[in-house]
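Students often ask why inverse folding is considered easier than folding. One informal answer: many sequences map to the same fold, so there is more than one right answer. In these notes we will look at a single instance of the problem. The structure comes first.
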């Protein structure tokens, strides 16, 4: 792995490397640690890329963050989880998380865009073998999706724990990219009679639907009723 553009890490920023330095849209790139954490903490689905039998594979899966570590959920029968546990070097991966915040509608088709926040993580993933770390990681995965839920559900028993695999990926080679603002039309297109602007996209909980066998005495938890 080349480090042609390596810089020393600081408390507030991740180091830049050859893999995290963008070739396009450099002004949108950031290595700010707080920004990266906020983007990661605001989602729970990632896309995990790796090479299998000489071909690229990208899988959607759940993740959770604890400090400078991401934990990725999977089954013990999952191919990438098995590959990560086959040898000490682990599995080389690229993990991405993206929020789409708005549709940017320009007057010209060419200048249509989206407002987004994204994070790309490069590194070597390792399967978590320690039972205590795995339980902590699984709690983080549950709380990543619904904060507070791990304390309001039965933890995994020994059989369930054995059937569940978790990958650990350290946040080392990391970059964020953000696009905000409105359309960037060409000056000669400004007079064209087409609506232009941004259509915001909002993510949030809908109205919870109780299970058919839920005891009527069990109240809706605060973490689901809060706006």
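Output (designed amino acids):
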């Amino acid at each position: 792995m080349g480090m042609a553009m390596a810089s020393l890490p600081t408390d507030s920023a991740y180091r830049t490397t050859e893999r995290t330095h963008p070739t396009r849209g450099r002004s949108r790139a950031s290595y700010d640690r707080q920004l990266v954490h906020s983007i990661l903490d605001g989602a729970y689905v990632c896309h995990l890329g790796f090479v299998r039998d000489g071909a690229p594979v990208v899988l959607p899966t759940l993740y959770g963050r604890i400090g400078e570590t991401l934990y990725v959920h999977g089954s013990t029968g999952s191919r990438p989880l098995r590959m990560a546990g086959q040898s000490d070097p682990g599995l080389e991966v690229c993990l991405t998380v993206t929020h789409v915040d708005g549709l940017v509608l320009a007057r010209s088709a060419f200048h249509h865009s989206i407002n987004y926040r994204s994070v790309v993580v490069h590194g070597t993933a390792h399967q978590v073998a320690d039972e205590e770390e795995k339980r902590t990681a699984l709690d983080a995965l549950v709380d990543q999706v619904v904060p507070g839920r791990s304390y309001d559900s039965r933890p995994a028993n020994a059989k369930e724990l054995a059937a569940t695999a978790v990958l650990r990926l350290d946040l080392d080679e990391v970059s964020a990219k953000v696009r905000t603002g409105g359309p960037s039309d060409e000056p000669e297109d400004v007079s064209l009679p087409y609506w232009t602007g941004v259509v915001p996209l909002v993510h949030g909980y809908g109205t919870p639907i109780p299970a058919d066998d839920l005891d009527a005495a069990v109240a809706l938890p605060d973490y689901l009723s809060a706006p």
